[in-house]
Amino acid sequence: MDKKSLSERDICTKFITPALVKSGWDILKQVREEVSFTDGRIHVRGNLTMRGKQKRADYILYYKANIPIAIIEAKDNKHALGAGMQQGLEYSDILDIPFVFSSNGDGFLFHDKTSKSKVETELTLEQFPTSKTLWSRYCSYKGIVKPEQKKIVEQDYFLDGSGRTPRYYQQNAVNRTIEAISRGQNRILLVMATGTGKTYTAFQIIHRLWKSGTKKRILFLADRTALIDQTRRGDFKHFGESMTVVKNRKVDKAYEVYLALYQGLTSGEGEEDENAKNIYRQFSPDFL
Asked: CATH classification of 3-142 is 3.90.1570.30, yes or no?
């Protein structure tokens, strides 16, 4: 077989995927090929609009669903081993992934953003790292070293069987938030534009914290009754009987997830309203 005559897809099928299988990666659960993670930038010229090219990774490797840890960019064998590295690094910055591999079928060039010494290493096809090896490096890099921390970050996302998955920026927001909380950071601000799925992102964060037992009682605030109703009937419906709406500034401790209007927790006296502060303290003991 003349490797030089093979297409990029052939290189993936005949050399890269078998290397992953040999190192123990689960092809069905941990490996996705030709992953388009953006629809392409919208360009506006006068009254005309058009989309730019999609960003598509040849491979994204996951420790668990929606927890990506590595990217592989493939080229045909007429290219050098590291010809796909620059593109892979660009995608890794967008997707917040620390491990990047480039391959032409002869082996891999491995770029390790977590390394403080040798950042790039050439590997043979037989030397591709296992998922446990990369996950261990990932956790050390993120400061997640204790068993109780790993329990939080390894908690599954909620999947309802519909095939719905978070967009890449929602995934980044959820994972970064969960990782920060696992390190003891309890005050976190996420800024997301209108229409980017803030409620869905909040739901996935809350679900993982709730299921892992990290947070026993959770308060979700909104500024309009319509938003509370929409949230209760939408993504949050999966909390079922564990969820309730706070009424008359009273918290029924039989529930675990609470929805409330922030105006409904105060008597109109703003920050000095002790009633509101007492309610908040029931959810967060360190509330100031």
From this structure: yes
Pairing of strands 243-245, 257-261: parallel
Residue 107's Cβ-side half-sphere holds a number of Cα atoms within 13 Å equal to 11
Residues 84-97 as b/e (b if ≥16 CB within 10 A, e otherwise) read bbebbbebbeebeb
User: Which residue intervals of the chain bear CATH 3.90.1570.30?
Assistant: 3-142
Model confidence at 287, in pLDDT bands (50, 70, 90)?
Answer: very low
Range of weakest confidence among 116-120, 176-180, 269-273: 269-273
CATH class (in words) of the domain with range 147-214: alpha beta
Asked whether the whole model's pTM tops 0.90, one would answer no
- Give rounded-to-5 percent helix, strand, coil for the chain: 40, 20, 40
Where in the sequence of the chain do the CATH 3.40.50.300 domains occur?
Answer: 147-214
* Nearest partner of 97 among 55, 125, 126, 127, judged by Cα: 55
